[in-house]
Amino acid sequence: QLHVLALLVASVGHDVDHPGVNNAYLCATGSPLARRYNDQSVLENHHAATTFEVLDDAACDVLGTLTLSQRKEVRRLMIAAVLATDMAQHQAMVQELRTAAHERALMGRAAPPVPANFTLRHLCHAADLGNCAIAWHLSREWVERICEETVGQALLEHSAHLPTAAKATPYTEDELFKRQLGFLDDWVGPFFRAAGGR
Question: Which residue of 39, 67, 71, 86 is most buried, as measured by CB atoms within 10 A?
Fold first, then answer.
């Protein structure tokens, strides 16, 4: 079950060594990471690369028993899955799901099998968004942390004289709810509906 292994390890590593700012900030400030990855999915490339650096340690290498060809395939799938967590890809991925559902509805059993790469990319992205789809008492801590990061980035942007769309003061209880509901309505809901073929 190489696909399951690839998805699990990619999911564990998909945000490893996150600096608490987004790709736009890293690119706008000309950070070393943005330069390294040529402003393309900067954080996601960093998370994938860092995950493989961790796996280079024999004590952490959960892929160590794989053959060379298996390891290459798992690496390929993992990279694709982690890169799919870039929110800049979100709308295109929603459209991919809608297109795939439409084609399967038209072709029925004659539809070709869904490629593993497609499935893993969309599952990893769904898992990344999944915190929003669980009960509030479970997801609240993560929402608060994301909002703290957002405020922290806004303060950094203000100090660097960069434009910011985010507020630079802590979120109130009502603002936490509104932010979460907006994210559910505008981002998570369309993705999950498309994944369900609707």
Answer: 86
pLDDT for residue 162 is more than 90: yes
- Report residue 58 CA to chain centroid gap: 27
Residue (of 124, 104, 122, 125) closest to 113 by Cα position:
104
pLDDT exceeds cutoff 90 at 157:
yes
Quote the CA–CA distance of 94 and 96 in Å, as a whole number: 5
pLDDT for res 66: 97
Percent of the chain with pLDDT over 90: 85
Distance separating alpha carbons of residues 112 and 69, to the nearest angstrom: 25
Q: What is the pTM of this model?
A: 0.93
Nearest to 19 by CA among 152, 127, 157, 171: 152
3-state secondary structure of 8: helix
Whole-angstrom distance, CA of residue 191 vs CA of residue 177: 20
Task: Name the helix (H) or strand (E) containing 87.
Answer: none
What phi and psi, each to the nearest 5 degrees, are found at residue 61?
-80, 90
